[in-house]
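I am still getting used to backbone structure tokens and would like to learn alongside you. Would you supply a protein for us yourself, any chain you care to pick? Start from the sequence, derive the backbone structure tokens from it, and show both lines together. Go ahead whenever you are ready, and we will take it from there.
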Amino acid sequence: MTEYRVHPGLSPRKKQRIGQGIQYTVLVGAVLAVAVVADWGSIAEQFLNGEVAVLMLPELFSIALVNTVIYTVSGYVVGFVLGLLLSVMQLSSVPANRWLSKLYVEVFRGLPAILVFLVLAFGVPTAFPGFRYPMGTYGMVAIGLGLVAAAYLAETFRAGIQAVPKGQMEAARSLGMGRTRALVTIVIPQAIRIVIPPLTNEFILLAKDSSLVYVMGVTLATAELTKFGSDMATRMANSTPFIVAGATYLLITVPLSLIVRRLEARQLETR
């Protein structure tokens, strides 16, 4: 009687290594192909022109970057306060509060941010002749970014409040605190600590959303990085300002991204 030996197939680890090897090979091949085909002289002239980059100084930092930070921080403050209020309304025992909050969240999460800016910049002044935003463009941008951010922050805060053990509220009430006081002094501070990573992520997203300010017709004095880079690129007939503006955004977003990762890792360690 003839015996047949069954040869085992590749192990999952070997299959994974082979798959990774194929992926790396394809990636290296694609990079080499691009490197060979690309016209590096034209790329350097059009996108990495040092002379054009120098001409963007010092306004790149003294105006564009400063305005981007102002828009982001002011919009975040408005969104933080409004989002916290909306989250409390969502958890309210009054049906009207819950409905209004949910309606707001669904509407502003569903609308493109650029449409909100257009309504604020052109729709509101048309509907209310003579109306002026407090602090002009800065106030208008803060309201626009804040309205959009609040819809997302409301959901973040709601999740944080619900993550706080119910015993915290019960203990506060047993000490004679009213529900509102217990919520403000006991529950909300704990909820904010829980959701610090997503709150920081929202700040990063808001910094990038500030690039939509250009639709409001800002001037050079109120231009943020994207508008400033676009104007400089048009003036210089060169794309280097776009690259420089993008790199400047990274000065804000990369450090914040690293902070988010550290905070998330710390939260995992404490669980």
